[in-house]
Amino acid sequence: MRMLIPLAVAVLAGSAIAAERVVLIEDFTNCGCSPCWSFEPTLNSFVNSHLAAGDISVIRVHTNWPSATDPIYLANPTEQQARWGFYGVNAVPTIKVDGIVNGYPGIEAAYNSRKNVPCYLDIFACRNPSSGMDNGTVSIRLIAEQDLGAGATMRLFATLVEDDVTGAGYWAGSVFEQAFRDNLFGPAGPVVAFSAPYPDTLFFQADYVINPAWNESNLSLVVFSCRSMPLPRTRR
Predict the structure, then answer these.
(1) Is the pLDDT of residue 73 over 70?
(2) CA distances (Å), 187 to each of 18, 28, 94, 192, in order?
(3) What DSSP letter does each residue of 95-145 carry, written as one string?
(4) Fewest beta carbons within 10 Å, which of 32, 43, 112, 220?
(5) Residue 67 burial (10 A CB sphere; 0-12, 13-18, 19+)
(6) How far apart are CA 186 and CA 182, in angstroms?
(7) Residue 24's Cα: distance from chain center in Å?
C-alpha cells in the first residue's frame, strides 16, 4: 500500500533554505462530462510522466454533475463537496495546480509556473497498521522552517486516492485514476498553528479504515495543508 510517501507543503518566503517541491494537482471531474473525457489522454500523459519523476501528487475529485450517478462521487459525497466548495468550482473539468493556478487546458504550463517556487513547510507521513492491516493510524509530522506568514488559519488534510477503479459513463471500459476515496481528517481538517522559535514541529495522527471494496495495492496517500488558498506541496 503506497501510504508511506513522505510529502511536504511549500509556501512563498524569503529564506535560502527550501525543500524539494511536489506540485499538487486537483482534478474536478465527472463520469458524464464529455470535455473531461476528451481531456483525459492529455491529463493522463502529463500525470504518468510526472508521477514517474516523483514531482506531483494527484487527487481527482468527482462532482455530481452532469451525471448524478457518478460512482466515485456517490461513494463519498460530503468530503468531495467540501473540496469543490472550497474553490467554488461550478464547472467541470476544472484543474487546480497548487490550489492557485488553473490547469485546464494548459496543465503543463500551469505546472511549470509552480515547480520552482520555494517551499518552507515539510510534511512527513508514516502508516501504522493494526494487526489486521486493514485499519490503523497515519502519523504526520509538520516542520515549519521559518515563519510562514499564513495570516489565516491553516488546516491539514490527508487524502486517500485509488488507481485503476472500474470506470462508468464516458469511462465505461476504462478506469478512474487517483479517484478520491477518503479525507482521513474529515472535510474540514484540523487547525495547524506554528509559533516561534523556528524551525517549529507539530505532530498529528489520523485513523484510517480500508474499505473492502478498495484495492489496497492501488491506494496512495496525499498530504497537504491549506489556508485561504491551498499551499504548494513538496516532498523530501
Answers:
(1) yes
(2) 29, 16, 20, 15
(3) EEETTTEE-SS-HHHHHHHHTTS---EEEEEEEEE-TTSSEEEEEEEEEES
(4) 112
(5) middle
(6) 8
(7) 6
- Express each pLDDT in 171-214 by its tens digit: 999 999 999 999 999 999 999 999 999 999 999 999 999 999 99
| Whether the predicted pLDDT of 236 surpasses 60 | no
Given a cut of 60, is residue 144 above it in pLDDT?
yes
Which grid cell sits at 83? 473540496
Domains identified in the chain and CATH numbers:
8-234 (2.60.40.10)
pLDDT tens digits, one per residue of 17-50 = 556 788 999 999 999 999 999 999 999 999 999 9
Query: Phi/psi of residue 86, each to 5°?
Result: -60, -40
Type of residue at 163: D
Q: Which three cell numbers stand for residue 232?
A: 504548494
